[in-house]
Amino acid sequence: LRKYKFSTRTGGVVFALLLLRTGKAEEVINELLPTPTTRTWGKWKTIVLDHIKHGRGFDFGTSDWDDGTWTNKEKEMLVGLFQDAHDAH
Q1: The dihedral of CA 64, 35, 16, 88: what is its sign?
Q2: What are phi and psi for residue 66, nearest 5 degrees?
Q3: Crossing angle for the helix pair 9-20 and 25-32, nearest 10 degrees?
């Protein structure tokens, strides 16, 4: 049995989604990460699910999400969440 350890739940969930390769990724992510319905989490989920669905790489840049409307706190959170997804890949 092989064990994997992730520093965050988001990283573990992204890893699981990549392994499962399911057409129901949105259902799975919502079940495993019942996160608040904030704009930040919504943007992160949308982009990560899109990258999984279309087999895109996991090198996220600000051009993927920054439209100039994010607060510094939101930007910091998004950068951390995208780093978790990148690390899981």
Answers
A1: positive
A2: -85, 105
A3: 150
pTM: 0.83
What residues contact 57, with CB distance under 8 A and at least 6 apart? 51, 89
Q: State the distance between the two ends of the chain, measured CA to CA, in whole angstroms.
A: 20
Decide if 20 contacts 28 (C-beta within 8 A).
Answer: yes
Look at the block and give the residue holding tokens 């988001």.
10
* Tens digits of residue pLDDT in 11-42: 989 998 988 888 888 888 888 887 677 899 99
Q: Exposed (0-12), middle (13-18) or buried (19+): which is 6, by Cβ within 10 Å?
A: middle
